[in-house]
Design a protein that fits this description.
The structure holds two protein chains of two kinds.
Chain A (H helix, E strand, L loop, with lengths): L11 E2 L7 H17 L8 H24 L8 E11 L2 E9 L1 H24 L6 H20 L3 H19 L6 H32 L4 H13 L5 H19 L7 H4 L5 H10 L4 H8 L1 H4 L3 H24 L3 H21 L2 H31 L17 H15 L5 H16 L1 H26 L20 H16 L8 H10 L11 H24 L13 H6 L1 H25 L4 H4 L4 H14 L6 H23 L1
Chain B lengths: L10 H23 L6 H25 L2 E2 L4 E6 L4 E4 H21 L22 H8 L7 H17 L3 H19 L6 H33 L4 H10 L4 H19 L7 H8 L2 H26 L4 H24 L4 H20 L15 H25 E3 L2 E2 L9 H4 L1 H15 L5 H15 L3 H27 L9 E2 L4 H19 L2 H9 L6
Antiparallel strand pairs in B: 1-2, 2-3, 4-5, 4-6
Helix pairs in contact in B: 1-2, 1-5, 2-3, 3-5, 3-11, 3-14, 5-6, 5-11, 6-7, 6-11, 7-8, 7-9, 7-10, 9-11, 10-13, 11-13, 11-14, 12-13, 12-18, 13-14, 13-17, 13-18, 14-16, 14-17, 14-19, 14-20, 16-18, 17-18, 17-19
The chains are: A mainly alpha, B mainly alpha.
GO molecular function (chain A): NADH dehydrogenase (ubiquinone) activity; NADH dehydrogenase activity
Organism (chain A): Nocardioides humilatus
Pfam families (chain A): Proton_antipo_M, Proton_antipo_N
Chain lengths: 648, 531
């Protein structure tokens, strides 16, 4: 693999409609400022303003997109210099924006899906007393996310990176009166700091190595270094691994995945926008954007593939075990991001397909999350699928749109997910047979858990009652909520169009390079058929286990071993809890030195160690001057000894 | 009789110093001639006018400063070589004078205590006695705090400007002695305050002894007290090397004590907690800026030739300081103590900057020299620290300032603006991007990195992460925790003096984070020390 296959980032100066690039970020940012600073004066109309802003950004993004399409392939990369952020001596970090095919697609996804989710939220949050604040945070998130994908250097990207982290933190904990929401927000924040540490170390290292943080500068440096053979392989691998750590934190990849399921404590539109469609895919963006690093860091690339493969299985297994509809969807999100990471890890051949899957996933997963919100709306905010059942007649629009998302995610032929997932599996099989097989197996599991979710929610016998205590009266949501569902459902069905005539591959080629076509071990058609068969087996299993049996309203706990084994989902839950979630979260606790005080009032793991060290050190702080004076004397001795030691 | 030649003094360049010391003397005269009840207003006015005039003079001098040494530095060597007024000096002077003005504003606050200042009416009177009550009813105050503050500021101005070891020692004492006194003058929790003052004094005197002995050894080695002379001797390295090494170590003790580096940090929490909070606010920012300026001058000018032996020493100290400060801050239950340990951690980060690359040759294109990084960091930390302590003065309960962390629970719901500002200062100290602290940390870490001290930077990043833990915990406490019944603090109504100070610090922290450009330019424009 050589850097030559990776184009150098060399944008032209922004002109015409592209000089409005800054406005794409500025609109939602202004919205956030007005809503958050305006206080209760904006209560009445705040949510409309908050919705208009991303819509405005969407319009600009669309205009830019079509303008770019009208240009030659080589001219689609433009940069806009706003102002010198830090510019002293030789250090030059500009507020620079970069518009190229990659960011173009992200802009459309973020502002498009973002606008739909804003519209949906008008209905969903209609009765929340703090609706204005919610829209303010959402706008803040959109602005930060746009900053992330538009920045022309790693410092700007990091700014957006931290911004989305902050917005995510605020939104997960939005219902702060719920203890679990506050705890989840904090958990997400702290785990993300580990990723951010990797990210900032990576930026440091790139700065030290290349003397700049801009994409164009670094990609030029890599290309130049590669040509004269001056590129230090181990440095590149380190940068790659550190970037991967950053990506793992934001994209909930193993081992930093623990926060995503808890993050479902936030309002459902948040889960749809941040924890399914956009923010969690930032890791994939980072890896794709840093292709000039990864193409020269083979070991880091291998690490990406390993992490992605583990995660896609992991998330799928979690998805099988959860009774909470949002958590089941979150498990599936984790798994699908695993696929995208896998695509990105496979290098030039896979980048375009990773982004393709990212886009289709953005459509169908946002669709399903919003659908889940609509179901919760119907069921009085109950999230336990064991309390659902037989809803397909009662919420017809939600059901139909959800079904489109379902068919897309399991990869039903003709739907968007079929094309995107299929391509990644095909490339994976070409690169490494075992990774490819894992990806295929993951597709089968996806078929299983999504079918289970579908059945438990919309089919099977109703497990709720419309009379007596805890009565619910399921009803369809208002049009302001179902409208976005219909649009997203249409996109879920038709998203595959982007692959027609390899359009997306060619469109992204100026950014990610063009791969030589390698023949997969089997004909592409056979692979597709195999995938369909594996998915079919998963669906059939789900039909057998869920549809053919009675579903208890409460997950049984005191069942015999045989029953446990038969009810595969419970078995998965047990495995999941004992083998995965607990050690995983403990590992993370130890790493981050976080406290679990929020959860159980006690400190554990690394927090405990630090606290213990603190308590021990505290004893030195006796309050006696004589002790302090002794430590001064001791310190003086240490200084003398260090100096002497250095000079020996 | 030997000839006595009149020393030549550069009155224009020395103007800021002369104004501050002169104003302090005027303050003493006011104490002597005005009746007790009517001293406060004139004292405050005189101090503010003096400091503002000194600030104006500093800017003027900076504008007039000429380039020397081929353009690497600007300024002059004044007062027969004992005071060096160069770019870094002038930058620090400006910074210290601003902190001084903010300090005077905080000192003058009277609304919080119901018409009394935060200082004791009569320090000699025991709390709860008749004399104390009388002093309180008459509204008496120790207005001596203003001249004391001015003398301290004067010492701080001289400290980083000193051109030889003796001037440096004198400056050290001039800045320290008034601070010792100020620490002991709290109206509330008098015994804690007096204990703090005594501890600070005893330990300060002890460490000054080390400094003085170190100066003696260095004189023995170099035969000169001036930094330029020492530099010559170090580069020619003729005589007893052990004299130099021991001298460096002992001088370091004195300076590291002042900045509060481990293992000389023990006084910091006790003194920060015991001193009146207005004094703590000023002291935390001012002393650190002055002492780091002096530290940098001593090591960069006098001991530059011995770089390879003091860099490891400071690295060890930096690592110990960062870890100790961050870890101990976690177990604190008092806001002022928590901020004190965070100050210790920041000392460590600053030391990381001091060991960084200095020469232009060592730096990659676009990096800051360590001096620039340290100066910028001092600016960001100083404003955040003054602001945070100023906020502590207005969060109160029946017993005065509510410094126990438990009392801060749920403050975000009662006073979102105050809690939000405090949270912002904490985030800046934590180094979250878009706040001033991030840019500062970036500057010092990169400079240490390019000097090859990646292991110190690694520890620094780990400590930052640990530190984020307790900053965020406090923010969570303010916004997401419900208060314990009976243990709540409320925000008192403060006068414009305190509110204005907080607003200025907040604005500075925001601006330094979002558009740090102009200040970074100022820092780079300051140039190098005159050697």
């Amino acid at each position: 693999m050589s850097a030559l296959s990776i184009p150098v980032v060399a944008p032209t100066e922004a002109d015409g409609v592209f000089s409005l690039l800054w406005l794409i970020i500025a609109l939602p940012l202004a919205g956030a400022a007005i809503l958050l600073l305006g206080g209760k004066y904006t209560d009445k109309w705040g949510h409309y303003l908050g919705t208009l802003m991303p819509v405005g950004s969407f319009v600009i993004s669309l205009t830019c997109f079509f303008t770019a399409l009208g240009r030659d392939e080589g001219d689609r990369q433009v940069a806009q210099h706003l102002y010198d952020w830090i510019d002293v001596g030789g250090l030059h970090v500009g507020m620079d924006l970069l518009y190229d095919p990659l960011s173009a697609l992200f802009l459309l996804l973020i502002t498009g899906v973002g606008s739909l989710i804003h519209i949906y939220s008008i209905g969903y949050m209609a009765h929340d007393a703090r609706r204005r604040r919610f829209f303010g945070y959402l706008n803040l998130f959109v602005a930060a996310m746009l900053m992330l994908v538009l920045a022309e250097n790693y410092v700007g990207l990091f700014l957006g990176w931290e911004g989305v982290g902050l917005a995510s933190y605020l939104l997960i904990g939005f219902w702060q009166h719920k203890h679990s929401a506050a705890a989840a927000a904090k958990k997400a924040f702290v785990i993300n700091r580990v990723g951010d540490m990797g990210m900032s170390l990576a930026i440091f290292l790139m700065f030290v190595t290349f003397g700049t943080t801009s994409f164009s500068g670094i990609s030029f440096g890599v290309a130049a270094g590669d040509q004269v053979g001056a590129l230090d392989a181990s440095t590149m691998n380190w940068i790659g691994v550190l970037l991967l750590i950053g990506a793992c934190g934001k994209s909930a990849q193993v081992p930093l995945q623990a926060w995503l399921l808890d993050a479902m404590e936030g309002p459902t539109p948040v889960s749809a926008l941040i924890h399914a469609a956009t923010m969690v895919t930032a890791g994939v963006y980072l890896v794709t954007r840093s292709n000039f690093i990864f193409e020269n860091a083979p070991h880091a690339q291998t690490a990406v593939i390993v992490v992605a493969t583990v995660t896609l299985m992991w998330g799928a297994i979690l998805g099988c075990a959860k009774d909470d509809i949002k958590k089941a969807l979150a498990g599936s999100t984790m798994s699908q991001i695993g696929y995208m990471m896998l695509g990105a890890g496979l290098g030039v051949a896979g980048y375009a397909f990773a982004i393709f899957h990212l886009l289709t996933h953005g459509f169908f997963k946002a669709n399903m999350f919003l659908g889940a919100g609509s179901v919760m709306h119907a069921m009085d905010d109950d999230v336990d699928m064991r309390h659902y059942g037989g809803l397909q007649k009662l919420v017809p629009v939600t059901f139909l749109t959800f079904a489109m998302g379902y068919l897309a995610i399991i990869g039903f032929p003709g739907f968007s997910g079929f094309f995107s997932k299929d391509k990644i599996i095909e490339v994976a099989l070409t690169e490494n047979i075992w990774v490819g097989l894992c990806a295929m197996l993951g597709a089968g599991i996806t078929g299983f858990y999504m079918t289970r979710l579908m059945l438990l929610t919309f089919f099977t016998q109703p497990r709720w009652s419309s009379k007596g205590e805890g009565a619910v009266h399921p009803h369809e949501s208002p049009w302001v909520m179902t409208g976005p569902l219909v649009v997203l459902a249409a996109l879920s069905v038709l998203g595959g169009v982007m692959l027609a005539g390899d359009w997306i591959v060619d469109f992204l080629a100026p950014v990610v390079g063009h791969a030589e076509h390698e023949e997969p071990p089997l004909p592409a058609l056979v692979i597709s058929l195999l995938v369909v068969v594996v998915v079919g087996i998963g669906v059939a299993l789900a039909l057998f286990f869920v549809q053919k049996r009675d579903v208890p309203r409460v997950a049984p706990t005191d069942v015999s071993f045989v029953t446990k084994a038969a009810r595969a989902d419970l078995y998965g839950d047990a495995i999941n809890d004992a083998l995965v979630v607990r050690p995983g979260s403990q590992l993370v606790t130890g790493l981050v030195a976080t406290d679990r005080g929020v959860v159980d009032g006690a400190f554990s793991g690394g927090g405990l160690v630090l606290r213990g060290a603190g308590q021990a050190l505290r004893r030195l702080q006796s309050g006696y001057v004589r002790t302090y004076a002794l430590s001064v004397l001791g310190g003086a001795l240490v200084l003398v000894l260090t100096l002497v030691a250095v000079n020996l | 009789m030997p000839d006595f030649s009149k020393p030549s003094l550069e009155y224009f360049e020395l103007l800021p110093l002369l104004i501050v010391f002169g104003t302090a003397c005027v303050g003493v005269l006011l104490e002597a001639f005005l009746p007790r009840q009517s001293r406060r207003v004139p004292q405050v006015l005189v101090s503010l006018v003096g400091l503002a005039a000194a600030l104006g003079a500093t800017i003027w001098v900076a504008k007039e400063a000429k380039e020397v040494g081929g353009g690497a530095a600007r300024g002059i060597v004044g007062a027969e070589g004992s005071v060096i007024i160069d770019g870094p000096t002038l930058y620090l002077w400006g910074l210290l004078l601003i902190f001084g003005i903010l300090g005077v504003a905080l000192f003058a606050e009277r609304r919080l205590e119901g018409g009394l200042s935060a200082f004791a009416g009569q320090a000699a009177a025991l709390p709860g006695t008749e004399a104390e009550r009388q002093a309180a009813t008459q509204g008496l105050d120790h207005t001596e705090v203003y001249p004391l503050l001015l003398f301290a500021i004067g010492g701080m101005l001289l400290f980083p400007a000193s051109g030889d070891l003796l001037t440096m020692f004198v400056a050290l004492e001039v800045l320290s002695l008034p601070l010792y006194l100020l620490c002991g003058l709290a109206r509330r929790r008098r015994l804690l305050s007096q204990e703090a003052a005594l501890k600070y004094f005893l330990l300060g005197a002890f460490s000054s002894g080390f400094f003085l002995y170190g100066a003696a050894l260095i004189y023995g080695y170099a035969g000169s007290m001036s930094f330029a002379g020492i530099d010559q001797a170090v580069r020619n390295n003729t005589s007893e090397h052990w004299l130099l090494l021991t001298g460096i170590a002992l001088l370091s003790v004195g300076l590291l004590f002042k900045v509060g580096a481990a293992p000389f940090q023990a006084w910091t929490p006790d003194v920060y907690q015991g001193a009146p909070t207005a004094v703590t606010a000023f002291m935390s920012a001012g002393t650190k800026a002055a002492a780091f300026g002096a530290l940098a001058r001593l090591f960069y000018v006098a001991f530059d030739g011995e770089r390879w032996s003091w860099q490891p020493m400071l690295s060890v100290v930096a690592i110990a300081t960062m870890l100790l400060g961050a870890v101990l801050a976690i177990v604190q239950t008092d806001v002022k103590r928590m901020l004190a340990y965070s100050a210790v951690a920041h000392t460590g980060f600053l030391l990381t900057g001091v060991i960084g690359a200095q020469g232009a040759g060592q730096l990659a294109k676009g990096q800051y020299s360590s001096l620039e990084g340290v100066l910028f960091y001092l600016t960001t930390y100083g404003f955040a620290s003054v602001g945070a302590f100023a906020l502590v003065t207005i969060v109160r309960d029946a017993g005065g300032e509510a410094t126990s962390t438990a009392a801060w629970a749920g403050l975000g719901k009662r006073s979102p603006l105050v809690a939000g500002s405090f949270a912002f200062f904490l985030l800046s100290m934590a180094g979250i991007p878009l706040t001033a602290g991030f840019v500062g940390k970036w500057a010092v870490f990169t400079s240490a990195m390019s000097a090859g001290f990646w292991w110190v930077v690694l520890v620094a990043i780990v400590s930052s992460v640990i530190a984020i833990f307790f900053y965020v915990r406090h923010i969570k406490l303010m916004f997401f925790t419900d208060p314990e019944p009976g243990e709540t603090a409320a925000v008192s109504d403060a006068s414009l003096l305190t509110v204005g100070t907080i607003a200025i610090c907040l604005a500075a922290t925001v601006v330094l984070g979002v558009v740090p450009g102009p200040v970074l330019e100022l820092v780079t424009g300051a140039g190098d020390f005159i050697r």
